[in-house]
Every structure is written in structure tokens, then in C-alpha cells.
């Protein structure tokens, strides 16, 4: 319910919202309409089989961390991204497709998740180089059965490695099935 948000909601961790990079706000009906309007929505089939617009886009997700500073620094350094920015309890790591990873310190155990990044061939070489420079183990497969190897799935390249919380990270140069 974007139109119902008020600025004071931003102090609440449950109402996670923040300014846009261009300084405008995500709040208010008029702005919400403007921001939510997709440039070009792909088409898909709804439950009834009717063709529909697929305008829902992932905007951000939370990455739980034992140490949020260490984790955010790890992500931006390995992936070659701008420094994370602080927003409330989060360190926000912005990605190239306007999705952010919002790193938050965990109160308890961190349950490993999977985060996959689509990168260019050049970026793949740079990230792979940083992984090797740090002496980190990498694998060709999601289940970590092929250490020290990369895969060539879908005609591209891919590899997996772990962040300080054992989140299973992946870079690919071609989308699955692409
Ligand atoms: Fe994956």
C-alpha cells in the first residue's frame, strides 16, 4: 500500500523505505504512480491462462549478516560495486539493475541463502580474480562438489563461492536457459 505510507513510517524497520538516489521520495500517490509505472512489461500467462502484464519487479531484499560492516564490504569489494550506504539498520548495496541488497545484522544464527549475480564477461574475470587473490574457494556447482572449477552452462561462465556468513553466492554471464 504505497499510497498509505507516511514519512514517519520510515523509522520503522517493518516499513522499509528510503529516498531514491536522485533525491526524490518514494512516498505519495502521485510519486508512487510515476515510479511504479514500468517502462515495458513482459507478458505472461495468469492462473486462468489469460495473458497478463508482468510488471512486478524485485526492488530490494535483506541479507542477514553476523557482521553487517564486514559483509557489506565483502560484497562491494568482491563484486566491484560502489560503497554501501547506511539506511537505518541496513547497509545498502546497490546493484546495476536498481535492486539493492540491504545488509542487516542478525540477532541470532544466520541461515545461508543463495544470491546470484548476472555479470559481463569482463566483470566475471575481475570478480574471479578477486576471489583467487583472496584465496577463497570457488566451485563450478551449487552444491560445492567441484572445487577450483567454473562451469560453462548456457554457453557462458559461472562459479559459486561463499560470503562470510556462508551465503552461497553465484556469478553467471548468461541467465539460466539463456
Ligand atoms: Fe543459482
UniProtKB/TrEMBL annotation:
<dbReference type="Pfam" id="PF00903">
    <property type="entry name" value="Glyoxalase"/>
</dbReference>
<feature type="compositionally biased region" description="Basic and acidic residues">
    <location>
        <begin position="19"/>
        <end position="34"/>
    </location>
</feature>
<feature type="region of interest" description="Disordered">
    <location>
        <begin position="1"/>
        <end position="52"/>
    </location>
</feature>
<dbReference type="InterPro" id="IPR004360">
    <property type="entry name" value="Glyas_Fos-R_dOase_dom"/>
</dbReference>
<dbReference type="InterPro" id="IPR029068">
    <property type="entry name" value="Glyas_Bleomycin-R_OHBP_Dase"/>
</dbReference>
<protein>
    <recommendedName>
        <fullName>VOC domain-containing protein</fullName>
    </recommendedName>
</protein>
<feature type="domain" description="VOC">
    <location>
        <begin position="57"/>
        <end position="174"/>
    </location>
</feature>
<dbReference type="InterPro" id="IPR037523">
    <property type="entry name" value="VOC_core"/>
</dbReference>
